[in-house]
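Dear H.,

Thanks for agreeing to be a second pair of eyes. The structure we're designing against is below in token form, covering all 104 positions.
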């Protein structure tokens, strides 16, 4: 197959679109929820209904972690363990909106 100029323009366009996409996602700087022993219960709450490896592909693709179920745990424990919030910390009602769970 001969690759002509129009093909190269198409390839270039894809590269530009991908570049923008990666650039935007790289701007995500808020810290992730650490995946450590302390945060295990938060991950367990979020993934308690996770479909098993034998579930249908459909169920696995459309599974959403139970973020609200996990978020109720965050602040009580942080207060109890005296984890400081930065002084300019934004409104704290939906932790997992900003602090993402790490993927397995
Ligand atoms: C059982 C207690 C506990 C629960 C529940 C908990 N945390 Fe934490 N978290 C801690 C402690 C202690 C630290 C500080 C030490 C550390 O990083 O483990 C911390 C640290 C953090 C940090 C800072 C990490 C860093 O990189 O400095 C973030 C962000 C965080 N927690 C978010 C969350 C969110 C969001 C939730 C709810 C989904 C949550 N935590 C639930 C105890 C908890
Ligand atoms: C509107 C977005 C937003 C929400 C909602 C939010 N945070 Fe944050 N959080 C931030 C930003 C931005 C920072 C400062 C940058 C950073 O360190 O991630 C921060 C910092 C932190 C830190 C300090 C991290 C460090 O530097 O050690 C902790 C702990 C934390 N948040 C916990 C929580 C918890 C727990 C909740 C829910 C009760 C929550 N956050 C909700 C945006 C948010």
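And this is the sequence the design step returned. I haven't edited it by hand at all.
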């Amino acid at each position: 197959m001969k690759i002509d100029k129009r093909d190269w323009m198409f390839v270039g366009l894809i590269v530009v679109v991908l570049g923008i996409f990666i650039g935007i996602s790289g701007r995500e700087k808020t810290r992730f929820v650490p995946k450590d022993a302390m945060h295990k219960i938060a991950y367990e709450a979020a993934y308690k209904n996770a479909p098993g490896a034998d579930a249908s592909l459909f169920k696995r693709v459309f599974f959403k972690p139970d973020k609200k179920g996990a978020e109720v745990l965050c602040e009580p424990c942080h207060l109890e363990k005296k984890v400081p919030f930065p002084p300019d910390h934004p409104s704290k009602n939906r932790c997992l909106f900003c602090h993402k769970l790490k993927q397995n």
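Two observations from my side: Residues 5-25 form the longest helix (21 residues). The chain is about 50% helix and 0% strand.

Warmly,
E.
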